[in-house]
Amino acid sequence: QVQLAESGGGLVQPGGSLRLSCAASGNIFGIGTMAWYRQAPGKQRELVATITSGGNTNYADSVKGRFIISRDNVKNTVDLQMNSLKPEDTAVYYCKMFVITTRSEYVDWGQGTQVTVSS
57 has which bridge partners? Predict the structure, then answer.
């Protein structure tokens, strides 16, 4: 059984920064693409950023130039550095990983961490 644990959310003023982290633990053989999604109240979950196992990244237009996704393939973690935060970045942020075990491959999600941008 693989578990994803997120940390780093909280309350921040507009223009501030936060760093989210997501760590996978358990019987892991490897991890493919990792990603961060977010879901604001009353809205659908949307993709924020992805990073492949080779380090290629992709960002939603709304966060380009402000957010940076990174990963550590040894620690099985993915981070999201969020800078110049805006009130519209307020949402629950979820990490997602394509997990490979010795028995199966599947997509796993974290439990979500709240990010609130407000003065």
Answer: 51
Q: Which residues contact 46 (CB under 8 A, 6 or more apart)?
A: 37, 38, 39, 60
pLDDT of residue 6: 94
pLDDT digits (tens, 9 = 90+) for 15-70: 999 999 999 999 999 999 999 999 999 999 999 999 999 999 999 999 999 999 99
The span from the CA of 53 to the CA of 72, in Å, is: 9
- C-alpha 116/C-alpha 47 separation (Å) is 18
The one-character DSSP state at 41 is T
Structure tokens at 34: 């990792």
The secondary structure of 50-75 as a DSSP string is EE-TT--EEE-TTTTTTEEEEEETTT
Percent of the chain with pLDDT over 90: 95
Residue recorded with tokens 């380009």: 64
CA distance 57 to 83: 17
CA distances from 50 to 13, 38, 57, 67 (A): 25, 12, 5, 11
